[in-house]
Specification:
Elements lengths: L2 E5 L2 E4 L4 E8 L4 E10 L6 E7 L2 E4 L7 E6 L4 E6 L8 E10 L7 E4 L3 E6 L1
Parallel strand pairs: 2-11
Antiparallel strand pairs: 1-3, 3-8, 4-5, 4-9, 5-6, 7-8, 9-10, 9-11
Amino acid sequence: QVQLVESGGGSVQAGGSLRLSCVPSGSIFTIDQMAWYRQAPGKQREFVAGIINGRTNYADSVKDRFTIDRHNAKNTMYMQMNSLKPEDTGVYYCNANLAVSVLSGMKSYWGQGTQVSVSS
């Protein structure tokens, strides 16, 4: 059973930092895309950052503040979040497109999310 486990969320003051981790578990053949999304209460889920088609992309709202990296050997993705703002508050979700075996196609998987709260 494939699972994406997010961690690293918490409550910080504006200007603080957090580092999020997304650790896949279970039988995974390959992962070709990983990304972070976030959702504030009452808001739609939005793209934050991801490694897509071999290139790192960031939402305009987090450019120059957030940095993602992926450890290919463990299929683990990290997101360093600096200079956090109250508007960064929300639940952050890891998303990955992966295949569980050589015979299966690529499918999208989501983690349960980790809460990030930034106070002014």
